[in-house]
Amino acid sequence: MVKVFLVEDEAIIRHGIRDNIDWASHGFEFAGEAGDGEYAYPLILKAQPDILVTDIKMPFMDGLELSRLVKKTLPRTRIIVLSGYNEFEYAKEAIKIGVEEYLLKPISSNVLLEHLGEVASKIHEKQKEYEQRERRIREMREKYLSFQKKDRDDNINSIKSSDADFDINSV
After folding, report:
1. Which of 17, 109, 155, 163 is the most exposed place for a label (fewest CB within 10 A)?
2. Is 53 helix (H, G, I), strand (E, B) or coil?
3. Nearest to 16 by CA among 90, 82, 87, 95
4. What SS3 class is residue 112?
5. Confidence of residue 168 (pLDDT cuts 50, 70, 90)
């Protein structure tokens, strides 16, 4: 399951998102929530979500600053920003940070789920690539060790079968 953490300062919106989505049936685990970035950050570090959904404007620490911190400490975490502001500067900064999606509020559960699904697909694709790369590395390592053992055995057999006198200690 893909873990999702939600940060939204408006409790009605936060609870609406949390309570109106059947997370498990859509392949998600609701990993936690917070009302501002400052409170959220240590919880995010503990939960290590795959996706962070955060409001952009919050007291104490806004969504952009939280996104910067999360990208620095948990670079694999994908971020979706929710914003009531259709301002280019916010979107531009979010892109610079590496935010996956910039969605305008109000947003329905269906639209949010659609975007969460797209991000989750990217996460699954990256996971498959990682697993394939790890499998190839293991296979290459096994082949290398096999060749190394064969070379060693060939050398030993060659030495044993030679007629030359030698001191085994010198080998």
Report:
1. 163
2. strand
3. 82
4. helix
5. low
Tell me the two tokens of residue 62.
Answer: 């806004």
C-alpha distance from residue 6 to each of 28, 29, 31, 49, 82 (Å): 12, 11, 8, 10, 10
CB atoms inside a 10 Å sphere around CB 72: 9
- 4: which 2 tokens? 């999702």
How many degrees, rounded to 5, is the angle at CA 41 between CA 31 and CA 11? 65
State phi, psi for 74 to the nearest 5 degrees.
-130, 70
98: phi then psi, degrees, rounded to nearest 5: 105, 25
Cα separation, 68 vs 9, in Å, equals: 18
Q: What is the pLDDT of residues 83-131, one digit of tens each?
A: 987 788 888 999 999 999 999 988 899 999 999 999 999 999 998 998 8
What pLDDT is recorded for position 68?
Answer: 96
